[in-house]
Amino acid sequence: MIAAACLIALGALIEAEKVTITSGGASFPAPAYLAAVAEFNNLYNADIASFAYAVSDSTTGQKNAYSGLFNFGGSDVAINIAQPNGTTLVALPAIAGGIGISYNLPGVSQNVKLSRTVLPRIFDGTITKWNDPALVKDNPFLANISQTLMVVTRSASSGTSQNMFRGLALMDASTGYANSPFLAKGFKLTMKNSFAAATTASAAIIVGSVSYTMTYLNQMEARDLELASPTLTTTALIQHPNGDFMSWSTSGGQIAVSSIDA
Fold first, then answer.
1. How far is residue 97's CA from residue 120's CA, in Å, rounded to a whole number?
2. Would strands 233-235 and 245-246 be described as parallel, antiparallel, or unpaired?
3. Cβ distance 24 to 94 under 8 Å?
4. Predicted confidence band of residue 261 (pLDDT cuts 50, 70, 90)
5. For the segment 116-173, what is each residue's pLDDT rounded down to a tens digit?
6. Beta-bridge mates of residue 217
7. Which residues, including other chains, have CB under 8 Å from residue 74's CB and lie 6 or more apart?
8. Are 49 and 57 in contact (CB under 8 A)?
9. What's the pTM value of the predicted model, to 2 decimals?
10. Is the pLDDT at 42 greater than 90, yes or no?
11. Which residues have C-beta within 8 Å of that of residue 221, sequence separation ≥ 6?
C-alpha cells in the first residue's frame, strides 16, 4: 500500500578496528541490518566484535543517534527531531517496503477489500462495525457480522504509524475528502473502538489472538502473522488509484520504489 524508505541516521564514526556497534530504532529494518552485518563479516572477515540493534521506533532511533548513544539509528521516516547542538544527522536510504492491513475475522475465508474511501474512515473512527454499509458495499459477506471492528493502534512515534497516516491523508486528498484528520500535526488514533499496542510485536500478537481486530504492519510482519495463524488472520486487499483491489507484492513494492524521485 505504501512504499517507505528506511533511513539510517548516522551518529559517531567508527574506527576501522575491532569494534562494537550499538544501534537501534525502527523495527522494520532490524532483520535486514542483522543479516547484512553477518554477511559482511563472512565476506570480508571483518572484525566486528558485536552488533546490537535495539528495536523501538523511528523517533527513538533518531534521538539516540543524535545524542551519540547509538552509532547509527534506524528510521522509517525522514529526520524530524530538533538538532540544537550543531551536530547534523545524515540520512542514507537503506531499505524500502510497504504496509499491510492485517485483521482477524473468524469464519471468513475471503480477503476483505478496503477502498480508498473506506480505509481512512476505519482509522479515524468513523467506521466502527464490520457490517458498516460502506464496508459491505465491496464485501457482501460482511453483512451479517455485526461485531465491533477493534483497531489496534501503534505509537505515534512509530515510523510505520507516521507513514500510515501520510498514506491515509493522500487517500483522502485523492478522493476529495475535506479536512482529513491525518493532516493534523501530532495526529493520534484515539477512537473508542481501539486499544494501543506497546510494540509492533504486541500489535501482531493481539491481532493474531483476538477476533474482530485490525492493525497495520510492515509487509514482513503482516506476512509472518498470516503464516503463523493462517486460519485466523489475513491481509486486506487495498484499492489502487486505478480502482483495482490489490494485495501487497514484491513486484508492487519495486514499482512504488522506482517511482520515487531521487
1. 20
2. unpaired
3. no
4. low
5. 999 999 999 999 999 999 999 999 999 999 999 999 988 777 888 888 999 999 999 9
6. 100
7. 6, 7, 8, 9, 23, 24, 25, 26, 28, 29, 30, 33, 53, 58, 61, 94
8. no
9. 0.81
10. no
11. 27, 28, 100, 102, 200, 204
